[in-house]
């Protein structure tokens, strides 16, 4: 972040000294405690207003505040509690919280509320906001813990949704789908093996910690298997080769690598293994994959074997810590959708434009300051999302990306708007919110004609 940007309103600091007194109050108790929400909101302007024309600084500050709070949550094992609450924080210019209002978003026992309020008091008295200001300000955050979802019970021909049904059925040969999601299972029920024609097995959101080779060996017609959000560690996943298995979901387990036995199922077309903390991601042998989900997988770089998956159509790399993309990603010539959002990318390689079938590119919440001139070589790109990046001008190449139908430039640092955008024949939606050109009233007139021309051409402009 440039020092000039920061000194306008904030000086970023990391402090561990905090106020002697911080009031942590449930929102429902404010009247009883003599606290006026309206008065607080008048006295403490939103932190966003202090960065109205500085989206880079605003985004970095918000991320630091969230990271600081999430670190405390992890340290005190609060993430597993079945709570959800919003926080309305009111800070002095020093970054010291004077009042924090807790809005309980789900029914919460009083004993749990008391415990959470004590922990929050501990947090706010030990930590300041990661910045100081020239005026009071307020901030908001939300924490969602391990809230059990209401169970989805599915019905239909050939479908069973409970272990009891599976145990009692007299026609196991007619059953093709078992939906045993959200049943608090700790192991694979023996009843599963009664069904020789089983094609789909959903064991998601249980507590299963071991996956025996028998599961795929004794269910030879199994095509789709979901173990989303269970408790599988590395040494617990065993698959025998299954010629019919096409889709496997191992998201949200305790894996640090892709199990070797998974790679033996070489007919897999869809593999979802995000929300694990992968130290390595060996994808060799999975040449038939067309859908790969590595969402929040702990990746600091793209796995070398990724670019060998020449049949990929959908690739999700959301919420990793990638700082650059390998140019060889352009080898994935069948790719239609690429999701790169919430990483640390400063640029996109020009060779991406070799992806002639790419239709959707999500790259929001990165640090991208421009686009390669070769991006006009995309032939199928319909949607480009560059919101929450570091663009100060509309990249010149955008004027030549003639297939674009939807362009999102929200929450950048746009100081100018190219009139050339009016020449995009297929553009239907343009997002410009939270940029200096629309937030600064003195500048709106300079670009009003361009916006009017776009709207006259039946482009929806959101500003």
UniProtKB/TrEMBL annotation:
SMART domains linked: LRR_BAC, LRR_TYP
Keywords associated with the record: Leucine-rich repeat, Repeat, Signal
Keyword Lipid metabolism: no
InterPro entries attached to this UniProt entry: Leu-rich_rpt, Leu-rich_rpt_4, Leu-rich_rpt_typical-subtyp, LRR_dom_sf, LRR_domain-containing
Keyword Signal: yes
Signal sequence segment: 1-20
One matching Pfam family: LRR_8
One GO CC annotation: cytoplasm
Protein name: Leucine-rich repeat domain-containing protein
Organism: Rudanella paleaurantiibacter
């Amino acid at each position: 972040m440039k020092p000039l940007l920061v000194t306008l309103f904030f000086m970023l600091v990391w402090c561990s000294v905090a106020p002697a007194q911080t009031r942590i109050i449930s929102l429902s108790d404010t009247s009883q405690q003599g606290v006026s929400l309206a008065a607080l909101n008048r006295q403490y302007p939103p932190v966003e207003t202090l960065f109205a024309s500085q989206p880079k600084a605003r985004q970095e500050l918000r991320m630091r505040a969230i990271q600081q709070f999430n670190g405390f949550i992890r340290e005190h094992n609060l993430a597993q509690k079945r709570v959800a609450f919003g926080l309305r924080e009111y800070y002095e210019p020093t970054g010291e919280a004077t009042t924090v209002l807790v809005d309980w978003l789900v029914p919460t026992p009083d004993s749990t509320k008391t415990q959470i309020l004590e922990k929050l008091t501990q947090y706010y008295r030990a930590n300041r906001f990661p910045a100081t200001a020239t005026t009071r300000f307020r901030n908001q955050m939300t924490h969602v813990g391990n809230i059990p979802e209401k169970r989805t019970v599915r019905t239909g021909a050939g479908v069973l949704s409970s272990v009891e049904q599976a145990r009692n059925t007299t026609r196991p040969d007619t059953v093709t789908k078992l939906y045993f999601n959200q049943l608090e299972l700790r192991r694979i029920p023996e009843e599963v093996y009664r069904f020789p024609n089983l094609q789909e097995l959903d064991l998601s959101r249980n507590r299963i910690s071991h996956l025996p080779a028998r599961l795929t060996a004794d269910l030879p017609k199994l095509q789709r298997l979901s173990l989303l959000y269970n408790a599988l560690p590395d040494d617990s996943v065993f698959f025998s080769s299954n010629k019919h298995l096409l889709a496997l979901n191992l998201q949200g387990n305790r894996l640090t690598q892709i199990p070797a036995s998974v790679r033996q199922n070489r007919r897999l077309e869809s593999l979802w293994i995000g929300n694990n903390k992968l130290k390595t991601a060996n994808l060799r042998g999975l040449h038939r994959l067309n859908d790969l989900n590595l969402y929040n997988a702990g990746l600091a770089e793209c796995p070398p074997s990724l670019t060998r998956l020449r049949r990929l159509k959908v690739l999700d790399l959301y919420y990793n810590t990638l700082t650059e993309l390998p140019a060889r990603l352009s080898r994935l010539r069948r790719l239609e959708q690429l999701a790169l959002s919430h990483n640390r990318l400063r640029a996109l390689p020009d060779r991406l434009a070799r992806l002639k079938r790419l239709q959707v590119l999500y790259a929001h919440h990165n640090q991208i300051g421009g686009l390669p001139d070769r991006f006009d070589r995309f032939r199928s790109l319909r949607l480009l999302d560059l919101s929450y990046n570091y663009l100060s001008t509309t990249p010149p190449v955008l004027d030549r990306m003639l297939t674009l139908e939807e362009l999102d430039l929200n929450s950048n640092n746009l100081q100018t708007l190219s009139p050339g955008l009016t020449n995009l024949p297929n553009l239907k939606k343009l997002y410009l919110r939270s940029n200096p050109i629309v937030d600064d009233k003195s500048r709106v007139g300079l670009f009003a004609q361009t916006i009017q021309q776009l709207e006259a051409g039946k482009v929806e402009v959101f500003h």
